[in-house]
Design a protein that fits this description.
The chain is an alpha/beta fold and 606 residues long. The protein has 22 helices and ten strands. The strands form two sheets. It has a six-stranded mixed β-sheet. A four-stranded antiparallel β-sheet has the order 2-1-4-5, with no helix packed on it. The longest helix is centred in the first third of the chain and has 49 residues, at 93-141.
């Protein structure tokens, strides 16, 4: 595979393209999905979600149509009742039958109304579930380059609030729109039965309604985009402040953070007020009042000329009343649809953002032996050259110590091995095979990284240790914990291995977190083990035990240790001294002590 492989992307669907259109989906991993969706535009994406539940949409449409058809029966029957009363002599005997018909039709209308709302709400909830599922799988499949650049708070805003807006788009949004359309059509169908000219006023209202609605949405759409965007910014700042709350309190910056949050909240508020201002100037209610006045005047003129009777005037006025539902419901139904489309656009922006890695499903899946080689490797991160002309070779089972000042590229170098990042140029090989030619899952399952900033989940200690090998039995867990010198302190807790730790392991000390991370790595039995300054928080009393554990764990596997501890540097088979993204010196301890002044300075400074 060529270097250009880093720009390839694959689907988040097994056996499908992820967009439903033959295009590659931006995903690092292929993960199981129930269906594929068209991600070309928000409207197409929403349609591809909704069409899966066409039967619920059909229930909604039938319910909306039936509801409107039965709604128009009442004014027609009331008009007949007035004619019967006004007749000479009055035909009061027919009133009971009319009342019964009104009761039956409205009972049936209530059932259809329930079916319409139930179908719409059920459909909306199912679509919200599918959207959350699609987005979550997509986020898990994104590369670390994406996650390093994308604020967590903004992701959470899109994954929670924006997804919820999609739900509201379908119900009550589209549910009310379908109902509104049927109520708009019924007067056009029924009014001419009294006199052909009576269709004029409803037609003019419909034309004015469409024009006003177009102007309303044209003005509203950019504002709803700003509302969703400002909410994401607000949520991002909130998440950052809470995530760094210890730093905020430690530096007494509560007031400044409150000021920043207030500024973001005020910005969000201003956009919401702008939206409310547009909604307040919604024209159709004024058109409705004019329509009812003109319609009644028209009908009365026809009555005065003897063309229609009084019952027809009353029925016609009742028919015009049907315009009230689409007029008042559309005031906020279309706002909800606009917000839903804006939320969908933000979700799609997230899912469609391209990665720079591909899983390479058809890649090599053999057993990893542990040979690692860098050949003239350069790496650029966000345009800046981070590593330059890196070349070295590590035999299976060797231990490599990587040393150098902060920012010299040590961590970036080891992350090229398991393809957290891909080399910009040159090759990184494992067992003589370019890492791009490996099946990514196979490669990563054989490599374990313990970073300086240990991440533990808010689960039990046992679940944290078995995170990389979920089917491990208790005996295996204890063996791994003992090897990491963690078993003793785990049993000091009341629930020992079932003790639930706080988020990120905040209830544990730094040394305890790192020993649990070591146990997690030992349990997976990786062929390549990478320790990124993973003993930095361990006290001197525990250090010797950890050193022996690492020394034992390193036997038979290739081990990379990023460290400043001289005791770990000395016994490494190969030592790489990094400086400003380049290899300043390479060799074992004795060789570097003779040949490298920079290396000797490390021991002198210590």
């Amino acid at each position: 595979m060529s270097t250009s492989a880093q720009n390839l992307t694959i689907s988040t669907d097994l056996g499908s393209n992820g967009r439903g259109t033959g295009e590659a989906s931006p995903s690092e991993f292929t993960l199981p999905r129930r269906s594929s969706y068209n991600r070309h535009s928000p409207v197409r994406w929403l349609f591809s979600h909704g069409i899966r539940y066409w039967y619920l949409a059909l229930i909604n449409i039938v319910g909306a149509g039936g509801n409107a058809a039965l709604a128009v029966v009442t004014p027609i029957l009331i008009g007949q009742a007035f004619d019967d009363i006004a007749a000479t002599p009055p035909q009061t005997g027919a009133l009971l039958g009319i009342a019964i018909w009104i009761a039956l039709t409205q009972l049936a209308r209530g059932f259809l109304h329930l079916a319409r709302n139930f179908g719409a709400e059920w459909m909306a909830q199912l679509i919200e579930r599918d959207v959350r599922d699609e987005l979550y799988i997509n986020l898990l499949g994104k590369s670390m380059t994406f996650h390093n650049l994308q604020p967590v708070g903004d992701i959470m805003a899109r994954a929670t609030n924006d997804v919820r807006e999609v739900n509201f788009l379908f119900s009550p949004g589209l549910n009310l729109v379908f109902g509104s359309i049927t109520f708009l059509v019924m007067p056009l169908i029924v009014a001419p039965r009294y006199h052909p000219s009576l269709i004029l006023v409803p037609t003019l209202f419909l034309i004015g309604y469409i024009i006003a609605l177009w102007q309303y949405l044209h003005e509203l759409n950019p504002i709803t985009r700003d509302v969703r965007q400002s909410f994401g910014t607000l949520n991002t700042r909130l998440a950052e402040a809470l995530d760094g709350i210890e730093t905020v309190k430690g530096m007494s910056q509560e007031r400044s953070e409150i000021s920043r949050f207030d500024a973001n909240a005020a910005n969000f508020r201003s956009h919401v007020v702008r939206q409310s201002n547009v909604e307040a100037r919604f024209i159709p209610p004024l058109l409705l009042a004019i329509t009812q006045a003109c319609g009644v005047l028209h009908a009365l003129l026809l009555y005065r000329q003897g063309i229609i009777d009084l019952g027809s005037v009353i029925a016609y006025f009742g028919i015009l009343q049907l315009f009230g539902f689409p007029t008042w419901s559309s005031m906020w139904a279309y706002s909800q649809i606009s917000l839903g489309i804006s939320g969908s656009r933000r979700i799609l922006e997230l899912m469609n953002r391209e990665n720079n890695l591909d899983q390479n499903l058809t890649g090599y899946t053999g057993q990893v032996r542990g040979e690692v080689e860098f050949r003239d490797v350069d790496f650029r991160y966000d345009g800046d050259l981070t590593l330059h002309n890196i070349s070295f070779r590590v035999k299976p089972g060797q231990t490599v110590a990587i040393v150098g000042q902060t920012g010299s590229g040590k961590t970036t170098l080891v992350k090229l091995i398991n393809r957290i990042y891909d080399a910009t140029s040159g090759q990184v090989l494992v067992d003589g095979i370019d890492v791009r030619d490996w099946n990514l899952e196979t490669l990563r399952r054989s490599i374990s990284i313990i970073e300086q900033d240990i991440f533990l989940f808010s689960r039990s200690i046992s679940e944290n240790i078995t995170f990389g090998k979920q089917n491990a039995i208790q005996e295996e867990i204890r063996i791994a914990a003992k090897a990491a010198q963690a078993d003793e302190f785990i049993f000091s807790f009341q629930d020992n291995y079932e003790t639930v730790i706080g988020e990120r392991g905040v209830t544990l000390s730094g040394g305890q977190r790192q020993r649990i991370a070591l146990a997690r790595a030992f349990l997976t039995d990786p062929r390549i083990l990478i320790l990124d300054d993973s003993t930095s928080s361990i006290d001197s009393e525990t250090e010797d035990k950890i050193q022996r554990a690492i020394f034992t764990a390193a036997r038979g596997r290739t081990t990379f240790i990023i460290t400043h501890r001289l005791s770990q540097i000395r016994w490494a088979d190969l030592i790489i001294l990094m400086r400003q993204g380049k290899i300043a010196a390479i060799g074992n301890h004795d060789e570097l002590m003779r040949s490298s002044q920079s290396y000797r300075n490390i021991f002198t400074e210590k």
